[in-house]
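Minutes, project check-in
Item: structure for the 216-residue chain
Input as provided by the requester:
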Amino acid sequence: MIRVLVVDDQELVRAGLRTILESAGDISVVGEASDGGAAIDAAKHLRPDVVLMDIRMPSMDGVEATRRMTGTRVVMLTTFDHDEYVVEALRAGASGFLVKDAPSEELLRAVRVVAAGDALLSPSVTRRMLARVVNAGPPARTPPPGLTELTEREREVLELVAHGNSNQEIAGRLHVTEATVKTHVSHLLDKLGLRDRVQAVVLAYESGLVTPGDPV
């Protein structure tokens, strides 16, 4: 059973999320919180597998709460129209994000993916929104340390990761095994000093290695 903590300042939103999650059968909502500070306390006490965290809340927002939840898997909840905090949240340690009006199936999949230890990068809306938010600001065109150390194949894998491809999809495109892809991902994360695939995506966009208009 996947244990989830739901964090949102609107009671109706929390109730709706609880209903959807607990209808799945393999997910249990172990607690709720209405702001970041309460979320941190609840996470320490309840030790959830996944935290669904609203970005904008009073007292302490989701970004700061995520930053303080070291080692906790967090999925940020936001609106599609406008949210300048998304990339900052990913840097703070979030494992991905969803729009609040995402289909129920996508919400359930997000919880399962993140609970399994993966990053939430596959849904098309995630790729589109991340590209839009990152591209809104001036990109850091100076290559980050370690980028020049990547092999040609590792750069190719990084670009495919940045476009939201799963290990299976990358393996199919490059005609290699998933184990080989995992090895490449592990090596490039190590060389770039990154925590996970989410940080790799942000770096790829901010460095200019990948831009939203690039073909997938």
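Outcome recorded: The mean pLDDT is 84.
No further action items on this chain.
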